[in-house]
Model the fold of this input.
Amino acid sequence: MRDPRRPDLDRYPELKQAWDRRQFVKSAAVGTAFMALGGALVRIAADDLTRQARADKRSDGKSRLPPGQRALDALRPMGGEEGDGDVRTFKLRVHGLVKSPFEIDYAGLLKLPQAEKAADVHCVTGWSLIGGLWKGVQIATLAEKAEVKSEARFVIFEAAHGYTANVPLKEATADTAMVTYRLNGKPLSIEHGAPVRGLVPDLYFWKSAKWITGVRFVKDDEPGFWETRGYNNHADPWKEERYA
Amino acid sequence: MPEVAEAVADPAPPAKPATRPHGVAATIKKRWRAWLRAIHRDIGYLAVGFTVIYALSGIAMNHIDDWDPNFHASELTHKITPIPDELSDADAAKQIASAAGLTGKIDDVYRAGDEVRLTYANGSKVTAIGDTITVQMRRDRLFFRVADWLHATRGKQVWKFIADAYAVLLLYLAVSGIFMIKGRLGLRWRGAMLVTIGLAAPLGYIILSGGPGAQKTERVAARPGEVDSPKPAKPADGITPLPPDDEAPARRN
Done:
């Protein structure tokens, strides 16, 4: 028996093309919705880590997972214009409002007082790496060595190809803020900023400049690469300071 | 038959032939939709390559937190007896390569702190730290590596202008598409409905999400004196003193 909603295509063959098109559009819409729903279910089912991180509290009372984030157990490569990643050519310039600016190579960096800190990081695109163990040299150590002048208020991370990120001095010299070269006992890979990247875990991860080349202390704020492209100047994940 | 003769002699004035508009304005009025379609068609052909590149790389980069659109990257770890400091670079490299099962040509051996780093001719990086060897390799994704590079125009001056031109062509395609067909399949019904739906999607998202102003910015200013009493550090290897920035040439970021 013929579907009453379906036109009699034998009798009206001129309707066939329009009917076929309608069926195609319907099938495409149903297929797309099915795939989207399936993807969402897979993501929800596989997200115990996110639930756990949301339930955990930090020592400062904040939720371990900032709002709008899902937890991952590995960094995601987010692109960017890479540096050469070579430890042999690596140089870090510590300068600006300091009494004793200096430039240090990779071997020299490893000879400075080292710090190893457990810290979660939070990408503005919505993922967080939970439970990373980072090794490096604290920005506070570099600041002390360079003898930062009292009028300095901000730290500008300088990186390959002119990338910069600005961080208030207080947050850049916090206990977990550092230039880091090792995550969970392994060297950083090139897509994650090798050989050395910045790390300011309590701000969105774009502040933790990859392929770092310099740490500059300044008096006046200088919004960096993403901050001048519509992203928030401060970038606190717990306040969801994603965009300007 | 005088009336008839009179009627024949004095006929009604003939109707004037309908005057047809002519001139440039008339031609444009008559032909504009045909030209719009012809230009739309040709620009559509021109845009095929660009659109494939931008659309596919756009999807790829849109999901960058789920996969690496540029590279197939892999990382392997192996266990090794820690390399003693006194072992020569060549012997250390041999021991590490053997433990990791690698046979390629080693370009460079670098040692610093507790690390021994090998760079292979194929670009692979091998690092021994304590009792762990990490082998990091990657290779390009053939299409996406190039397409993503083009899509992210940072630092590519000429391509920036080409991409701008493509954007202008897309605007033409969008606007001309509205007027290409008249009647119920055009702006009178179907076209109007679909254009409205197309505009409603972004507008609806902005309204429902609150838009970019939804997350209020709280500017945080650093306070002076956060780093107090800096003490001179002991000199260390690998450190080169620099002149203060106000004496050095200006750096451009």
Q: What stands out?
A: The radius of gyration of chain B is 37 Å. Chain B has six helices and six strands. Residues 24-62 of chain B form the longest helix (39 residues). Confidence is low (pLDDT under 50) at residues 217-235, 249-253 of chain B.
